[in-house]
Amino acid sequence: MTKAKFITFEGADGTGKSTQINLLGKYLESKGIQFVITREPGGTEIGEIIRNWVLYGEHDQLKPQTETLMMMAARAFHVENLIRPALDENIWVIADRYTDATTVYQGYAKGMSIETIHLLNTIATEDLEPDMTFLLDASSKLGKGRIGSRQLDYFEKQSDSFYDQIRRGYVEVASNSPERIKLIKADQSIEAVFAEISSHLSPWV
Ligand code: TYD
What is the sign of the dihedral through the CA atoms of 187, 138, 11 and 132? Predict the structure, then answer.
């Protein structure tokens, strides 16, 4: 049996991560593979408290440094209490965002040093890297249109130029790790996007 894999999904808001994660869950289920779906910030009780605070709290009180450290605290707890234990039990882990999100949102967009973020990510994860990351890439027009009028969190309320910074940051991060990060055009049909995802995973399932 293939060793359980750790798969992450990244992308600007509204690129369809949740839809693809649900499809991946159904696909793994159909293959009889055990998995858990989780998210960042979040995934644990403490992580969800941090998530609520950062995304829906008094955000003006948060400097980028504080924002970064809160993401990292949630991540360290998540890796220790959910991600590693699942992988140790040979359960696949599918995460909606992980380390690359901090590099892009707090680094490229909020100006924190990328090197500092890498160091903090290494500490928070104790070097646990995903086996594969899917980056869903779409224009701000498509992404922001898809976000629509649901209750917006702090990051979703930002301008088009913030969205474009996020998009460019992710493309750069992907170009630095082409083996791990698969960039997928999210302006295709849901089925076409998932066909690309499943073809990348086929050697493992
Ligand atoms: P998101 O994953 O888009 O969830 P939903 O689809 O339910 O809205 O929301 C998480 C937000 O948190 C997203 O806008 C990106 C942001 N974020 C960071 O800024 N840094 C991080 O390290 C992580 C994990 C997320």
Answer: positive
